[in-house]
Amino acid sequence: MTNQATLERPALSPGKTTQARPDPITLEVVRNKLEGIANEMESTLLRSSFSPIVKEGLDASASLFTTAGESLAQACAVPIHLATLIPIVETILREYPLDTMRDGDIYIMNDPYLGGTHLPDIALVAPVFVDGRVIALSATMTHHQDVGGMTPGSIPTNATEIYQEGIRIPPLKLFEAGEINQTLVSLLRLNVRIPDTFMGDINAQIAACRIGARRLVELTSVYDVALLETVFAALLAHSEALTRAQLDTIPAGVYRYADWLDNDGIDLEQRVRIEVAVTVGNGAMHVDFTGTSPQLRGPFNCVKSGSQAAAYFAVRALTDPEIPTNAGCFRPVSLHLPKGTLVNPEEPAPVGSRTATIKRITGCILGAFKEALPDKVPADSAGVLLALAFGGKQADGKSYVVGELITGGSGASRRCDGVDVVETDASNCMNLPVEALELEAPIRVNRLELRADSGGAGTFRGGLGLVKEFELLGGSAIFTHRGERHYCPAQGSAGGGSGACEHSVIVRASGQVEEIPSKLVVDLHKGDRVIVQTPGGGGYGDPAGRDPQAVRADIADGKLSVEQATALYGISG
Predict the structure, then answer these.
(1) What is the pLDDT of residue 22?
(2) Percent of the residues in the chain that have a pLDDT greater than 90, as a whole number
(3) Model pLDDT for residues 380-394, shown as the tens digit of each residue
């Protein structure tokens, strides 16, 4: 029998689905397809890029957006990138309205004061056309190993204005109707130290954007465009409703926390305060940064996009992880960012080292809920991404620039120990394998091991940091060390102890030892060694409550010395 609903349905091309209101099954099928597209874009980025920081360190991200500039689906990638793509897409749409876009256009930008984050993070955005109109946008962001500026690797810790940090790219057309802008490419190549690697990574971004566009167009052969646009809106509304419901489970009130950065890279003895007051109520979260330090001379300022990224990560960490991540999750979040402060600096303040600040902001927002949500919020994590950059010449005279991203331990929780050497707090990169580093530069890694005694003591121990030793085998190199937690350790919770501070030194070929005061740009020469020891996470609970067997296991595994076991836990082995 043919029912009336079937009779009233409009004629379709074979295999295409349309309906006035999408059913739950269609919503889930399309959602999973969109997330699959974003992850395929990410895979394309990682497999096609030239630089080790992307193909090994995974420092790149991909996302799909609605025509209104709201994030629709995200790859499993770097939260900072995924959130800072949002204001970048908004800027592109403002500069290039939808009705001016043409099929084959691809836009490029990185300027932090127009919506970007820091200069090495370059975004590409491509409109997706179906039947002559834009139905969505495909976007990628990659951390480029070098974008010029005063030091190789483009993360100078001693910059005092953004002009020293590299090339600034406003919203421009890299491709127009499928034709590449060769003038722009020539300009970009001339301003970076490793142009072939740079363009290799740009080409990977182009490929990823095009994969995203192609897969979305293929989706319209199954689902009518009008239906898809209805699905897009429904998915965002659903995530918003779920997020607001989760926020309503947090006791209404104002929650406060403060933490410190070591310094701004210029005044090495001046600590930098980050303070948050987070107001929760009526299904919304507002983050006020009043009390945070004024903007800095050095490059640890964080433009609005980065502060926003920290808050967006925090709301996802505080709510149900099963909620699909899209712009709906972020609609309940608002921020007060006092102008001229660390979290909303005025141009031309340098911002190249903003990752350290974003991670500390994130830790503060989460830390504010330690008492209200003890089952969800652990002790402070080390919350560092120790960035190292080496730049010089190979024996054949060819320039090299390599970077290394190193982490510390996470904070312990009321249920378990912290995780050793893991990314936390809005970043999600991988370590650079020893072999990959040694292939790219005349550097040998002499040692790589867990750092004993670095996790904060507690009923549950904080995660450990690591020890890594680099030796320059030939010539000279400019070395950048962007560290944190040299002076301000990760705090424990519920009576737990603080994690160990970071500690780095240069051992010259002569045997002379030079302490690194958190941030440094310096020359290295053949035979010089750099030894870094990253910080540990905070402990949770009274150390007296720790299971003696867990202490003995830590001793046996080399994670805890007998001396510390005796001093902290009263156990000698």
Answers:
(1) 84
(2) 95
(3) 999 999 999 999 999
Question: Could you give the residue ranges of the DSSP H alpha helices within 274-332?
Answer: 304-318, 327-330
The percentage of residues in the chain with a pLDDT greater than 70, rounded to a whole number, is 96
CA distance 525 to 338: 44
Residue 11 has pLDDT above 70, yes or no: no
Per residue, the 3-state secondary structure of 390-416, as one string, reads EEEECCCCCEEEEEEEECCCCCCCCCC
C-alpha angle 187-188-192 in degrees, rounded to nearest 5 = 120
- Distance CA(263)–CA(108), nearest Å, equals 33
Of 159, 210, 217, residue with least CA distance to 353: 159
Which residue do the tokens 């409109």 mark? 127
272: β partners: 261
| pLDDT tens-place string over residues 106-142 | 999 999 999 999 999 999 999 999 999 999 999 999 9
Each residue's pLDDT tens digit, 209-244: 999 999 999 999 999 999 999 999 999 999 999 999
User: Considering only CA atoms, which of 54, 76, 51, 53 is closest in space to residue 63?
Assistant: 76
Tell how strand 466-472 and strand 519-525 pair up: unpaired
CB 328 within 8 A of CB 380: no
Q: What is the number of alpha carbons within 13 Å of residue 558 lying toward its C-beta?
A: 5
CB 244 within 8 A of CB 260: no
Interacting residues of 366 by C-beta distance below 8 A, sequence separation 6+? 314, 317, 318, 377, 425
Q: Of 380, 382, 305, 372, whose CA–CA distance to 343 is shortest?
A: 305
The closest alpha carbon to 142, from 80, 93, 184, 195, belongs to: 80
Beta-bridged to residue 252, according to DSSP, are none
| Tokens 């239906």 sit on residue | 227
Q: Rounded to the nearest 5°, which phi and psi values hold at 33?
A: -65, -45
User: Strands, DSSP E only, in 46-184?
Assistant: 60-65, 71-74, 106-109, 121-130, 133-143, 172-176, 179-180
Residue 12 has what pLDDT? 38
* Most distant CA pair in the chain, distance: 92
The two tokens of residue 499 are 């994690």
The tens digit of pLDDT for each residue in 483-503 reads 999 999 999 999 999 999 999
Round to whole Å and give the CA distance between 568 and 573. 13
E strands, 94-244, in order: 106-109, 121-130, 133-143, 172-176, 179-180
Q: pLDDT per residue over 535-569, tens digit each? A: 999 999 999 999 999 999 999 999 999 999 999 99
Its pTM surpasses 0.90 = yes
Beta-strand runs (E) in 144-189: 172-176, 179-180
Closest CA to 343 of 357, 359, 364, 363: 357
The amino acid sitting at 342 is L
